[in-house]
């Protein structure tokens, strides 16, 4: 979460504040320790109550905006609002329910995440698979403790989980702040050791000048195109969650994983393919998920979206950005495009597109007040959902479905995150009136 926030704020904005950030990280760790020590008497429950109220209010705003715009056409906003509202009630310390609901939710979340971590470690086998296996076992143990209610009572589940979050986030913030000291002017934060994992930038670092960060470019757009697994499969079938986020199997038994590409017209197009199409017969698909080098194959980059559409079909989903950092994106692409190696789970179309999108987002939220902006990010529910999607991809691998969700939440955070609750409702009311006038004009 902290790494993602630092990326959006940019190294040039954060480097002068490294001492203060290190202090904030240390204080956050201390607050987490105090919450753990306070579990028995609950004097710090005001923290969880405040978080619950904020989540519930955000849910109410989402629901109100969706109702103004039309529930049928904004079902995603309705679902998001209900989720925030329910989360707010679960997080708040309501005496009459003994927090059994939140204990069940957190216990199930830890259990599911632990199982996914273990399964991913066994199947994908990335370089850190042993650490993933150990983390999965720890999460399952925590799930058992939380669900059993002993030695941790159900009413202490939320403060306990929040304390763990504060400890981990504070430690990460302190580490990144200390690393910022050595970051040179104009250097990407992804050159820091903390970004060295395969789901970030591998520690390569890009020495671009961070000019243009946070700017809007009239007439120029950055587009993430997604061919979902369902949309690209001929009569795809299978469980809906699997089809949405992993793969669909067509009527001939061939597995379609979909595709993702990033386009900055007129000359930059990130679309990674294997040089020779991989045989994705269902019987052999499990072997291809191993991310180790034995599954590396020669790859190629498609020249343009127009040529890709001509040879296949148009993308069924597109997310468009108007605020981005073209200098950072071009610097990243010059380096990344030198290696065409393709791996179905370690270096695929989705991971290439997301890495390029991340590069384009560096410093996009820089506004001269980095600490205030960092705080706004950390209390933005869409940013938490963004981090949740990224966590799923880091746990397994980037797929077109995860890339699409990530891009949608990133769009909310970078292009609509400045809107206050009152402004969001005003915008929804204005859009409702515009749509109403348009319908009247069509009837006339």
TrEMBL record:
GO terms for cellular component: plasma membrane. The keyword Metal-binding does not apply. The keyword Transmembrane applies. The chain crosses the membrane at residues 20-39, 51-70, 77-94, 100-120, 132-150. InterPro entries: Acid_resist_chaperone_HdeD. Keywords: Membrane, Transmembrane, Transmembrane helix. This is Protease. It comes from Starkeya nomas.
């Amino acid at each position: 979460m902290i790494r993602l926030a630092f990326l959006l704020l940019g190294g040039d904005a954060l480097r002068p504040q490294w001492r203060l950030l290190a202090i904030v990280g240390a204080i956050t760790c201390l607050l987490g320790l105090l919450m753990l020590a306070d579990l028995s008497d609950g004097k710090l429950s005001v923290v969880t109550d405040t978080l619950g109220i904020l989540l519930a209010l955000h849910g109410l705003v989402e629901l109100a905006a969706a109702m103004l715009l039309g529930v049928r056409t904004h079902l995603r906003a309705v679902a998001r609002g209900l989720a925030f509202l329910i989360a707010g009630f679960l997080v708040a310390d309501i005496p009459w329910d003994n927090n059994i609901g939140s204990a069940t939710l957190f216990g199930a979340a830890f259990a599911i995440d632990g199982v996914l971590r273990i399964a991913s470690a066994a199947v994908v086998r990335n370089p850190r698979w042993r650490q993933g296996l150990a983390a999965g076992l720890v999460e399952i143990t925590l799930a058992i403790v939380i669900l059993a209610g002993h030695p941790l009572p159900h009413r202490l589940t939320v403060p306990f989980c929040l304390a763990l979050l504060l400890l981990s986030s504070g430690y990460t913030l302190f580490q990144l702040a200390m690393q910022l000291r050595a970051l040179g002017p104009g250097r990407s934060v992804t050159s820091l050791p903390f970004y060295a994992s395969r789901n970030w930038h591998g520690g390569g670092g890009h020495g671009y000048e961070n000019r243009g960060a946070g700017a809007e470019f009239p007439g120029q757009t950055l587009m993430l195109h997604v061919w979902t697994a369902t949309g690209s499969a001929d009569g795809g079938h299978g469980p809906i969650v699997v089809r949405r986020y992993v793969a669909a199997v067509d009527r001939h038994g061939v597995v379609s994983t979909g595709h993702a590409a990033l386009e900055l017209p007129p000359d930059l197009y990130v679309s990674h393919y294997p040089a020779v199409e991989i045989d994705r017969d269902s019987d052999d698909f499990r072997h291809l998920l191993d991310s180790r080098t034995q599954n590396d194959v020669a790859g190629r980059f498609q020249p343009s979206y127009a040529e890709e559409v001509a040879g296949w079909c148009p993308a069924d989903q597109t997310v468009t950005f108007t605020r981005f950092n073209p200098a950072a994106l071009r610097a990243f692409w010059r380096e990344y495009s030198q290696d065409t190696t393709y791996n179905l789970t370690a270096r695929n179309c989705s991971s290439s597109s997301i890495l390029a999108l991340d590069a384009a987002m560096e410093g996009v939220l820089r506004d001269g007040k980095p600490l205030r902006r960092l705080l706004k990010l950390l209390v933005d529910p869409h940013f938490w959902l963004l981090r949740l999607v990224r966590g799923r991809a880091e746990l397994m691998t980037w797929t077109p479905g995860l890339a699409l969700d990530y891009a949608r939440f990133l769009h909310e955070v970078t292009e609509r995150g400045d809107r206050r609750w009152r402004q969001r409702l005003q915008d929804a009311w204005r859009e409702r009136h515009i749509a109403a006038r348009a319908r009247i004009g069509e009837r006339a």
